[in-house]
Amino acid sequence: MIQKNILKSKLSLRERTQRDLAKALGLSEVSTNKKVNGTIKFSLNEVKKIKEYLNLTNDEVVEIFLV
């Protein structure tokens, strides 16, 4: 299950919003919100894009998406 609070804090620390994330992923804001809140899962490709977009470490990716 996604750790939405951690993902939201990483966005905030980098002064980015879910709207910015949606644009970076090429998704609608509604779809992105559902994924951030765990209603729908992120694809592996989307996780890779988020890792690059937010400059996350491998440990951070595991903490957010796999724990």
From TrEMBL:
Full protein name: DUF739 family protein
InterPro entries cross-referenced by the UniProt entry: Cro/C1-type_HTH (IPR001387), DUF739 (IPR008003), Lambda_DNA-bd_dom_sf (IPR010982)
UniProt GO molecular function: DNA binding
Superkingdom as given in the UniProt entry: Bacteria
